[in-house]
Amino acid sequence: xxxxxxxxxxxxxxxxxxxxxxxxxxxxxxxxxxxxxxxxxxxxxxxxxxxxxxxxxxxxxxxxxxxxxxxxxxxxxxxxxxxxxxxxxxxxxxxxxxxxxxxxxxxxxxxxxxxxxxxxxxxxxxxxx
Amino acid sequence: xxxxxxxxxxxxxxxxxxxxxxxxxxxxxxxxxxxxxxxxxxxxxxxxxxxxxxxxxxxxxxxxxxxxxxxxxxxxxxxxxxxxxxxxxxxxxxxxxxxxxxxxxxxxxxxxxxxxxxxxxxxxxxxxx
DNA sequence: TTAAACCTTCCCTTAATGGGAAGGTCAATA
DNA sequence: TATTGACCTTCCCATTAAGGGAAGGTTTAA
Lengths: 129, 129
Hints:
- Two copies of one chain form a homodimer.
- Chain A contains six helices and two strands; from the N terminus they run ααββαααα.
- The first copy, chain A, is mainly alpha-helical.
- Chain A folds into two domains: about 1-60, Multidrug-efflux Transporter Regulator, Chain: A, Domain 2 (Orthogonal Bundle), CATH 1.10.1660.10; about 75-129.
- The first copy, chain A, has a two-stranded antiparallel sheet.
- The first copy, chain A, is elongated.
- At the A-B interface, α3, α4, α5 and α6 of A face α3, α4, α5 and α6 of B.
- Chain A binds a DNA duplex (30 and 30 nucleotides) through α2.
């Protein structure tokens, strides 16, 4: 399979496939005589794993480790759990930050008439805070 | 005031002050003979506004507009409200995405023993999805 | 007069995704 | 057979927000 075909099957942009390779997340593809990257069904499988990990918000670094653990049939599940738990904490932090922003913003927007007049509690709110 | 002093007073890194200037978010500072940027109390005020807007997650583009509206005493508050509302929608989208990730991840982490054995529902979950 | 504490500009790095250029390859069709 | 279009390659650039660090000029105080 050429890169275009894996890309379609795994639903991962070819640019990203090359990038994952350069980051060492997936192994270097073998090449055809002309230098084209060659892939197999198994590569589709790996790319789908990477894609799902991305969808869960894992960083490239985490994904590199996760793929490696995934392939290692002797891994201790504790290592996987540790990565996931750390990620959960980061997501919770982001979630809380966004929640705080929304709390403030919703209050301000609610109290702003949003008409042709200049009075604006939103600007006041940002200005004073 | 030199940049270091405004930086302290507004609690905004000097690197960022220069950047805001280069982005047109704040006006170009006047310079001393030696080329040092010179600031006044009012600049501190503006920088604090920018800082608070950043804390609410507004993008640089939005902040540029917000500062301009803030300074324009004839602004229609509708314009401000529109920017804020759009931002709220984006934050809500991010919040929902994070919530979805957390839902999945928490389930997976809960079901993973996290010991020395290789069985790992987290990896299975990412792999199959 | 020298040293420290500032200031200046310029380039680099982070993270993830992708656009686009310049050029090589392959397959089908005229 | 020649050409065309679709595909592939690498390389550089942009995005976003924040800042590190270098190389060099300025100010001030000891």
